[in-house]
Specification:
single chain; alpha+beta; five-stranded antiparallel β-sheet; disordered N terminus
Length: 206
């Protein structure tokens, strides 16, 4: 229900931004009373998680939405527009093509929260380091996903930053870090970014 209400709100906001008028019939509560289950695709799960997080922030932490206002407007406009016809270039599995993402969303910050656990120079060390940290902190990290983000630190060089998440809120990420830090390990709440550990392709050695 939250997801449907949020999407309806986004569509309504996009209509206002685009200067067009809509009727209220489609947004009546009875029109969204019976909802099918969330589809099992990655995009559907991402949309559901993002919708629930946006719904929570809209109710309890509206000030935090200012940081993602351009992305919210771009998403609302994209949802309000008719689905684009498949492009000729860029085939994807199952046929057809994926439409390009709205330009305003290319650098959008993550809506998820994560924790930065360590930085490594070698991919293999990041893999073994994640396994050790999961075994050491099963309650905080056992059911989390690991991601790697390639970063360059001035004067120090290139590193692979190991992150774990997602956490539903910044408070949850901080709670996890508090336990990890009390045990003497490093932990810092961050946006949950990067690529999944299994999908990360290490750079070829120079």
């Amino acid at each position: 229900m939250k997801t449907s209400h949020l999407l309806v709100s986004l569509l309504a906001a996009a209509a206002v931004l685009g200067g067009c008028a809509t009727t209220g019939a489609a947004t009546a509560p009875e029109a969204v009373a019976a909802l099918p289950p969330i589809a099992g695709t990655q995009n559907a799960r991402l949309a559901d998680l993002a919708a629930r997080e946006l719904d929570r922030r809209a109710r309890y932490d509206p000030e935090s939405l200012a940081a993602v206002a351009p992305e919210l407007r771009a998403l609302a406009q994209a949802l309000a527009e008719p689905a684009p016809r498949p492009a000729v270039a860029g085939p994807v599995a199952g046929g057809g093509s994926l439409p390009p993402a709205p330009a305003d969303m290319l650098d959008a910050p993550s809506l998820w929260h994560g924790v930065h656990l360590a930085s490594y120079r070698i991919y293999a060390n990041a893999v073994s380091g994640w396994a050790e940290l999961q075994a050491r902190f099963p309650e905080q990290l056992g059911d989390r996903e690991a991601r790697l983000a390639a970063v360059t630190l001035p004067g120090r060089g290139d590193f692979l930053r190991l992150e774990a998440g997602p956490y539903d809120s910044l408070a949850q990420a901080r709670e996890a870090c508090a336990v990890i830090e009390r045990a003497g390990a490093y932990c810092m709440p961050v946006e949950f970014a990067g690529l999944p550990l299994a999908d990360f392709v290490p750079a070829a050695p120079h």
